Amino acid sequence: MASRVIVPERQRDGVFAGKLKPKAAEGNNRRAALVDIGNLDTKRVGGDAGKQQQVTRPATRRFGAVLLANAQANAEKKNKKPVVVIADKTVVLKTKVSNPVAKKAVVKPKQEPVIGAGAEEAKKEKPNTQKSSRKKKVQTMTSVLSARSKVACGLSDNIVDIDAGDIDNQLAAVEYVEDLYNFYILAESSSQIPDYMDSQNQINAKMRMILVDWLIQVHNKFELAPETLYLTIYIVDRYLSTNVTQRRELQLLGISSMLIASKYEEIWAPEVKDFVCISDKTYTREHILGMEKSILAKLGWTLTVPTPYVFLVRFVKAAMADKEMENMAFFLAELGLMQYAVVMFRPSMLAASAVYAARCTLNKTPPWDKTLEIHTGYTGSQLIDCAKLLVSFHAGVADDKLRVVFNKYSSPKRSAVALLAPAKSLLAS
């Protein structure tokens, strides 16, 4: 029987299989304490593990920049050599910089003058960078035809171009203003209000005057635009011409009409609760909104109509009016809004008659000229009847109980035109 070979056991990590490695002497197994492991270069001094000596500074970015600056300064000092200059027995030390850097002179090429015909060609080839800031007026077909008709009638010398100063004003729409007002003239015939007072059973002209006087007061209280007032009166008259209204609903009609006009014209329109408050809570929110729906249904939602204000702005401009004359024209026009007798006149005729009466009141000569005749479309003789009516309202407004318009235009803010005497030339005739 063969005998097995005995292999000695392997040593694993100082431990024999089945036996522990004998311990070494305690004196030989002592380990030194850990030293500083920071970013400083240190070394032991005298073999003592507890003491350290700093040899170098940590190489930070700031320290590296300082070293670089010092190195550059030392290099510059080496390149400079002192030079001794004797002047009046005085020794002066100057530093001489070696290898000076010479500046290169920049020589601009000279432009050769162009002589003869070449100069004119060069000027022609040079583009003109200066553009005229004045905007050219665009000639429309309507303006061309109007100018030709004026020349044919021999009126070109007496007519003033009232839009010449607004060529650069884009909001004035000079290119389209003539076409716009030609359209307004055609549109006002379809929006003309008929005589409706005979069809009303409980409302008369005096009640309408009281309502308009109160609406002008509310308009001033809310500080609304002039367009809103004229559109409000139009809506009231338009509704009364199509629907029989009871007396107790007349003020409600005025409130709802101003609410609609404010929504159409104003940027910040008054709210329904404001009209409830201004009516002393006579009507509720439901009453006002219900009347609003009824008005819009009767009018067919047609609110874009030429009111007297649209024509007044244009005709006052054609009259070359100052502030006093402008206030006088608007004063007479608002007096006309209160009177039912003026409803039958076209908005353009009411506006032209207000300008005519204002010129007569302020003694402007002539009271009507060719420029006004062309832009309004009316002659002076066509405006006499309506102008006399407006002047008669002016003569009696001071003694009337309804004085809202009179007080409005008696303030210095509006040139106190209501305090002026009415036109005697129109009252006497």
UniProtKB/TrEMBL annotation:
<dbReference type="GO" id="GO:0044772">
    <property type="term" value="P:mitotic cell cycle phase transition"/>
</dbReference>
<feature type="domain" description="Cyclin C-terminal">
    <location>
        <begin position="306"/>
        <end position="423"/>
    </location>
</feature>
<dbReference type="GO" id="GO:0010332">
    <property type="term" value="P:response to gamma radiation"/>
</dbReference>
<dbReference type="InterPro" id="IPR006671">
    <property type="entry name" value="Cyclin_N"/>
</dbReference>
<keyword id="KW-0132">Cell division</keyword>
<feature type="domain" description="Cyclin-like">
    <location>
        <begin position="213"/>
        <end position="297"/>
    </location>
</feature>
<keyword id="KW-0195">Cyclin</keyword>
<dbReference type="Pfam" id="PF02984">
    <property type="entry name" value="Cyclin_C"/>
</dbReference>
<dbReference type="InterPro" id="IPR048258">
    <property type="entry name" value="Cyclins_cyclin-box"/>
</dbReference>
<dbReference type="InterPro" id="IPR004367">
    <property type="entry name" value="Cyclin_C-dom"/>
</dbReference>
<protein>
    <submittedName>
        <fullName>Uncharacterized protein</fullName>
    </submittedName>
</protein>
<dbReference type="InterPro" id="IPR046965">
    <property type="entry name" value="Cyclin_A/B-like"/>
</dbReference>
<dbReference type="GO" id="GO:0016538">
    <property type="term" value="F:cyclin-dependent protein serine/threonine kinase regulator activity"/>
</dbReference>
<comment type="similarity">
    <text>Belongs to the cyclin family. Cyclin AB subfamily.</text>
</comment>
<dbReference type="InterPro" id="IPR039361">
    <property type="entry name" value="Cyclin"/>
</dbReference>
<feature type="region of interest" description="Disordered">
    <location>
        <begin position="117"/>
        <end position="139"/>
    </location>
</feature>
<dbReference type="InterPro" id="IPR013763">
    <property type="entry name" value="Cyclin-like_dom"/>
</dbReference>
<dbReference type="Pfam" id="PF00134">
    <property type="entry name" value="Cyclin_N"/>
</dbReference>
<keyword id="KW-0131">Cell cycle</keyword>
<dbReference type="InterPro" id="IPR036915">
    <property type="entry name" value="Cyclin-like_sf"/>
</dbReference>
<feature type="domain" description="Cyclin-like">
    <location>
        <begin position="310"/>
        <end position="392"/>
    </location>
</feature>
<dbReference type="GO" id="GO:0051301">
    <property type="term" value="P:cell division"/>
</dbReference>
